[in-house]
Amino acid sequence: MKTSFILSAADSIRDAILDHESELESLDRAIGDGDHYINMKRGAAAITELHTELATLNADAALNKIGLKLLSTIGGASGPLLASFFMSMAKVLKEKNDDAITTYAAAFAAGVAAVQLRGKAALGEKTMLDVLIPVAQQFSALAASDSNIKAICQALTHTAEEGMLATKALIATKGRAAGLGERAIGHIDPGAKSCQLMINAVCKQVLANQP
Q1: Per-domain residue ranges for the chain?
Q2: Model-level pTM?
Q3: What are the CA-CA distances from residue 101 to residues 11, 111, 136, 149 (Å)?
Q4: N or C, which end of the chain has less CB nearby within 10 Å?
């Protein structure tokens, strides 16, 4: 993975978050703390401000730096969760030190596992993991089967959307929404929506770079 791609993907993620301001704010007002969009916007802006510094680093070092920046920039629970994701990805990339698609899948899976461990959450609890876990599982399976990049991106985009939409029918057991009980049913989890947007943005960036 080239650092230039990470920077382009970060810009795409920032744009996706900004483009969905009203939707994210509406979702968070319904079942969250009301600060999800602000935190995501702040984190995306912080990464953009690091571009010049990140451009001089290897991909693993850049991801680790992003993680550290998010940890000190984003408030609430999102900061430590996203920081764990990027820093765990960085560790795998550094250890593997190759450009195999299976390495990228392993790095993503490690990031998701770190989020799961830190958040003490699992699939089906109406959180971002309802998007991240299925995507990580499918990414690993498709990478191992030598699927082409286009097929992988299309599948992951679809799986992310399915996971996000599935949170609408779930009862939350983590975070502020957990206190709402059945009243949270009918609302999409804002963290799941943000993850779906980010995965979609990165996949679009990957496809745009294909010959």
Answers
A1: 3-208
A2: 0.91
A3: 22, 15, 13, 9
A4: C
